[in-house]
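1st attempt posting a full record on here, be nice pls
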Amino acid sequence: TAALPPAPATGVALVRALLEVLTGCRPIEQLRQHCAPNVFAGLQDAPMLGRRGTIRLLSTWVCEPADGVAELSAVFRSAERVRAIALRLQGVDGRWRITALHLG
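the predicted structure (as C-alpha cells):
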C-alpha cells in the first residue's frame, strides 16, 4: 500500500468516473486501464443511469481490509432515486485497479 496513491482520493475519483460513464458524460474507454477485464466487460453491458448531469454523489466510505486492497461504497442520487455503488480496488503496478463492482 505504501507504493500506491491514497485509496480514499483515488476511490472517489474512480466512482465519479464510473458514474460519468454510466450517464454518458465520459467515454467508457477512459476506464479500461483502471478496471480488471471482467469489470470492464460488465461496464460495457451496464444500463445507463440517466441523462448527463443528473447524478449527485452524496457520500463515500473507504476501508482497507488488507495491504494493497481497498473497498469503497458510495451513495448517489440519480434523478429522484437514491442508489449505491460498491467497488473493490487492488494495487497493481503502483496504481489502484477496480477488481469488483456492484451497482445497486
